[in-house]
Amino acid sequence: MKPLLRLLSLSLLAHCPALAASPNGDARRVEVLFLGAPAANHPAHQPVESYRVLKKALGVDGINLTYTEDLADLRRDLLDRYDGVMFYGNWKKSESMDSAQEKALLGYVNDGGGFLPLHSASASFGGSPAYIKLVGGHFKSHETGVFTTRIAEPEHPIMKGFTGFETWDETYTHDQLTTDRTVLQFRDQEPWTWVRNQGKGKVFYTAYGHDARTWGQPAFHELLRRAVLWSVGDKARARLAALKLPTLESEEMILPGYLEHKTITRGQKPLSPAESLKMAQVPNGFDIALFASEPDIVNPIHITWDDKGRAYVVETVDYPNNLQAGNLGHDLIHLCEDTNGDGKADKFTLFADKLSIPSSAVFVNGGLIITNCTEMLFLKDTDGDGKADVRKVLFTGFNPADTHAGVSSLRYGLDNWIYATVGYAGFKGSVGGENFDFKMGVFRFKSDGSKLEFLQNTTNNTWGLGFTSDFDILGSTANGNPSWYYTFSKEAYDSAKLAQPRTPAGDTNPMYFPTSLDIRQVDQHDRYTAAAGHTFYTAARFPEIYRDRIAFVCEPTGKLVGQFDVTAKGAGFNSFQQPNNLYSSADAWSGPVAAETGPDGAVWVSDWYNLIIQHNPTPTVKSAGYDAKTGKGAAYESPVRDISMGRIFRIFPKGSKNDSQPKLVATDLSSLLAGLHHPNLFWRVQAQRLIVESGSTTAAAKLKALIKSSPKEDAAIHAFYTLQGLNALDDDTIQLALSTGGRGLYRAALSAVSSEKGLLKSGVVSAADSRALAEALVALAGLSPSESIGQALLATLNGNTAIVTDPALYDAWQIAARHHAPGVILASLASDPAPPAVNSVIKSFNSAASPARDALATSLKSRSEPSAQTLAALFAAEPAVIKEIVRVNKSEPRVMKNGSLIYNRTCVACHGPEGLGVPGAFPPLDGSPIVVGDPSVPTRILLHGLQGPIEVLGKTYNNIMPAHSDLKDNEISDVLTYVRQSWTNDAPAVPEPLIKKTREDFSSRKTPWTATELLK
Asked: Which residues of the chain have pLDDT under 50?
């Protein structure tokens, strides 16, 4: 596990000021540190998974678990933040515990802390007598078996009313047993669970817990709940009692039970904002405070701020199914202000209403750009009353057929463009006289709506986008990929005739860590299936370890805001999900859908507060226990979808102060230049934007001076992009940025280079790291073809082995090399044979006739290298003509149109608009023998689902495909025919009677198919 598991929540404790009083005084939840050994120490023990299971089980009881795997966290200044410490895993079986760590642990327990060693914790640190005595005994040996323990002390507080349970586990025997233990349970005659006092502290030990067969037992969770509350002592229990946790009452309702395919007939009643806060966990050392709630705001889906730091809350009661004609719905935006400085909004002004399912907003040009059903809308208050009196459509073309697959994630880019994402519903329209048709991806547009650029396809529905201070661009997709990264623009790939990949996955662990068992998911159970947002922490109020490194990704079905540690990995990124969330709740109604770094340096969380978050598929008796209807927005209809509640929270380190609020004045250049130095990215961007929008003619000299004096500071990045926005850049400034700037300034300079000057050094492309090299290569592709650049590109390839092993870096090299192909090819004549990467350049360059191709052929004839004449003949011949696919099976337009609509509603999120799937996650449909073979096989998959592993075109996939038995026979016929006759597929149509017969033949089927069953 990564070193950062010295814990975000632990590391901060050494940096934050003395803790301020909690909003509830001494009342608070119980804090337990779960110290798990790395699984590599003993693969059969999975501490992080056991922690995940227990965290879900105990959250409702007011017990917060925080995870670490670093023994160095056994320090008093850290331990004293916790009421108890739980040990599980294998450490140093025969070795001694570090003396300082042992002293800290013993002192902590002696002074009143609780200690809960579990299972193999008794086999650890066998060379430390003091540790063995603390535990109360030492592991000796074990067999295995199924057993039930005998309760020896039924009146002990831990055991009172506890009846025990049967489980399979390792049958531990112990030695070095102390005489001061009270044995609570015996396995046969072997002491199994005991307690003891140590100074003022209490110790609980149980030998239970080898694997999931015990950890998955609710009765084991109950035993540990009792153990925690006993071991933490009277003061901690009193603080929990003083909190007065709400009783979670239930009432009759109908909810889909996708996991067990049974109707859920009772659900939790909602809680008031104050009571809901008591069910939330934030990192130890942080506070959470309510900013706004119902009735002042309802169903908040996004929040943004203006250059005064005022909050605009986007609210939608029409989501998901209440689509209205003319994009005039019942949704609105409130301007929410805290006028007395107590951290809570007390002034609410209706900024705009009559909106239709808005999802996101960004402040620019004195107003808000907002997504509004089919259109991108600009709203502005011109008379200062806080209410928009300008309503202007910038462009239109978003598809409202599925409201959870639309446009979202508006952000002001450091390059002065507005960025956004869109799901599989897609966009088809004209912007700036140019026609567009795209789905599932990232795009950007000018703030006046005059120009748009599509950048890159994502893997499925996309509701997250975030920037670092250096302008790294990452985001999240809903299913299985909560953290992806942007490579390079589609224009760059297209210009090189290179297939652009979908945004590559940065995360390797899409599981999540909720604090509740009351979770409803359609698929990807216990994993990210509804990821939303991907905001980096870009201020200075949190500990430094967060800054530009930790991204917050919401998972509303899990009622949490996850923390992803994002670090460079070659020309891309690795996003490691931390087992400790920024926010999680045991309140089943909580549904965080957005988390943003605010002007005050806190993280603001928009809690949708709704028991139903999932959009589709529509429940059926077979899939979820009952039949429901699909609404106009493609979500299933349910009276439980609430339109009366919603909350916004702020999360921040205890005792920390709000970031200072600069007084940015659009007409005062000095205030704006000062704003470029603010430690919070939000304020730097606002200052930059205001200078660009002012069109200042006097700012350029001061901005250039700033870059010259402080090229390594964040302010220099904004100064450069501000100059670019003012059209005031010059070559001296660009070269200065390339040669002396930090990573973000170097990237900014690459966007403006007009020559190779500053990019080449000693005959190769020079850059500080792989990502910078990749971006420099793409920048070179924007220059006029040059033989010298081609030579440098080949030398760079030969001198950097990472280019052929790093997919993003390889793509960047190909983009540059194909643009400067003649130079690369001529330089490669000295190598025989040419590197495979060069052969790709040759093949691409020879695919179409051009004057440059003819010139290269002529040049090659005069060369003496052995391969020159062969290449000369190759380029002198006519390029190969790509034959058009002649289809055997004729498509029926009506079927293909209807099949396309169904595909885009149910399949495109996983398999993509081109049927290419997602590498490592979802198999391709284009070219798949399963798809174009026996039509009864894909029919059975649609009717009952598919459980991996399955091999398609030589690759293995393990995800579970849910059943789509909600589709009618004619719909399955149409969508399968569409898939079998699209892209390169050419197979006969699937007749409706076959669907009907297959449904009848397998009507008793309750579980997904396996590949073995389908393909036998």
From this structure: 1-23
